[in-house]
């Protein structure tokens, strides 16, 4: 089975698609952690809220594309609000407090979603222009899943350009490297951090919207993806774009192949991989080199 | 302070109401309705509760001069909550009989308590084989189905239709394995081969894509599955999106295209074969009358879940009529249930005194286009399917 080209092609595309979703989710989490040592466990909740906002937008406007434009913005707005009201004050607190508060937000989000949208699972239809199938190297593959891969690659290119070519990108890179020094230069790190945080929320919302037509939308959909995302950050090494990309690809592929090649170990493979990576490289595969 | 007083007043009122209920117990027959009104199975619980109400409306709420009173309790689809609620129904509400339970996990959790309390429990859905097999109880009767009852005859039938190589897929839990094992035994016994199997973890499967790729690589001529509810809708959609629909026959336990959502699945479901104890298109006067009444009330087709609840009402009312409305001798009540026989919406119905499981027809149906919608068309009937005792000695 493993050596059959058809199986390899379809399964690699499946793996790429999961990798790209994980990338959209992990990059925000990873950069925020790298810059401020701040861990936001409610990141998965933002992904779930993105999917639900997409559901409501599709119901009102009857268009996936409107949802794709609006729902991530809504999630970014919610993120900004939480930052202003709650998370800003948590930054200088101990990591344990950050973890507890953001972990609490997971439950708040879970119940809020249940109250607004109910407990039953929902789906939204695949947009008509992408509902067809395409042939990839002679194998049938749903066009919409290729679209997810394309979105991931586009975001990757944009982030790379943004980090390397813009002033904000330079501040972020410098901030991850040595935050105190950047602040000493008179740069408002706080503001840069806020913008990065909102961008991370926007990306989580985007991941929620694009995954909604493929996965079902239900309260609790955030938990399984959150754990995978955290593993990506740990394996890839926090704070770096490269780490998030490689981490997503490794975890996405191992999870996709693992669950059918060795189903007995479906729940174990990625944890075993994480443990192995941590043994060899305790700071992840591509950690940011710290100067302080 | 006022808050405390209000609280005390509410408590007192509650206590009074409680004693009033107890005083009433001699005059009315109490039926505990143990269903999930929230949680993953909330939708199914509400569907069955509606059909129970309709059943009592149709068949009467009075037997032998005693009115039948329903006491509802929410299992929240959780075993622990289900056990707490069944204790509440039996100890505090002092119900004469309990009906309901969607999930086999909840049924497993309440089984020992119900068995010990000697209160008749009529299961209206949960299909775990053990409940009417090695863990059967003289107090637990099932009106829905057992997991293997639905799938057992499908194996030889599919082999007879010319399918030789099957790939099996279901979630990795008791029901998934029981359904697949029942199909597998029949299919291989009739000369079929199992090309491969996949059991994704229950509740964690984000994506069927990887499993569909595996099924395709095994090159079967039929993929036999058990999925229900949200995952069934998702699976059918992905099956079509990956182009499997044009290459391989899809078949399975009929919940894959339940009447509850087959119209939502639409064209993606067309061509699928299913085995189930009820389809809305069963062509008998009993079923047509029932469906007409249900549609008038709810504006949609009644599902297999509704029918199981509706037939349960008939079983209870007929048994109560036989005992003259008496409920103090619970053994006599269950015995009366064994003697009840009728033809309901799903066909001939009776309880097997050897296992307490229902004996019923199992139908094979194909999803086909019907006007501008889709629905199940019955292709074959296995009459009066009865489970072997499976270690049950009643």
Describe this protein's structure.
Chain A has 11 helices and 2 strands, in the order ααααββααααααα. Chain A is mostly helical. Chain A has one domain: ABC transporter involved in vitamin B12 uptake, BtuC, CATH 1.10.3470. In chain A, strands 1-2 form a two-stranded antiparallel ribbon. In chain A, a hairpin with a 2-residue loop joins strand 1 and strand 2 (139-142). Chain A is globular, with a radius of gyration of 19 Å. Chain B is of the alpha/beta class and 394 residues long. Chain B folds into 2 domains: 26-145 and 286-356, Rossmann fold (3-Layer(aba) Sandwich), CATH 3.40.50; 149-276 and 362-385, Rossmann fold (3-Layer(aba) Sandwich), CATH 3.40.50.2300. In chain B, 42% of the residues lie in helices and 23% in strands. Chain B is built from 13 helices and 15 strands. Chain B has helices at residues 2-24, 42-59, 79-92, 104-117, 147-151, 154-160, 174-189, 209-217, 230-241, 262-265, 285-298, 304-322, 330-339, and strands spanning 29-35, 62-63, 66-74, 97-100, 121-123, 140-142, 165-170, 193-198, 222-226, 249-253, 273-276, 341-344, 347-351, 358-370, 373-385. In chain B, strands 7, 8, 9, 10, 11, 12, 13, 14 and 15 form a 9-stranded mixed β-sheet that branches. Chain B has a 6-stranded mixed β-sheet with strand order 2-3-1-4-5-6, with helices on both faces. In chain B, helix 6 (154-160) crosses helix 7. The radius of gyration of chain B is 22 Å and the shape is globular. Mean pLDDT of chain B is 90; it is low at 14-25.
